[in-house]
Amino acid sequence: MNVLTAKILNHLPESWFRFAANKMVNYYLNKYADIKVEGMENIKKAQGAKIFICNHLSNSDGLVLDKVLKEYDPYFVAGVKLSNDPVTNIGTMVVKTITIKPNSADKEALTRIVKAVKEGSNLVIFPEGTRSRTGSMIEAKKGILLIAKLTKAPIVPIGMSGTDKLLPVNKEGDMAKETWHNTEVRINIGEPITFPNKNKEEDKNQYEDRVLNYMMKSVAKLLPEEYRGYYR
To answer: Which parts of the sequence belong to the Phospholipid/glycerol acyltransferase domain (predicted)?
Structure first.
């Protein structure tokens, strides 16, 4: 997908844009991604609206997961800057997205997120907050802990591998130069996780660090060893 095509699509009326964007994304996924899924049965073990947490490798991650989780019709929590780029904006129009300002207390976005879950919608969150440029997991942000606390929704971990080869991150940071490649993509869905209890001797920060580490290791164990990185 080149910048010119993306810019043309972005100037279409919204209904046409969504139709054309969906057709284009389905074309790319069907042509290049051989998606293998394990553990779909684990999703039903979580009651009510769910939060799916997953490692983040590529701009194709949301598109792949939207296809895999079609039955659950989730919202994706994504950085607001994605909608400012003509290429990545196509993705935000294809999947249901709640945009959030990174590294800030975005109260408006948090209100929308909590409201969506309370009304029964599922969420997909990439706790690392950005794509890994090495394929290995990087340290997660604590925002997921606040969202989990406010929504009280069950957490379902997902390990994803192969999208780093499907649509690799451009080393220069130029998303327009990212190109698709024929690749097997593996999605491994784990069982819902329960937060560990707080120990008496722990302060708030120590407990949050332990819970975040626990959550992310629940994702890491679903991945091949070389993808686990920080949570190896």
So the answer is: 50-163
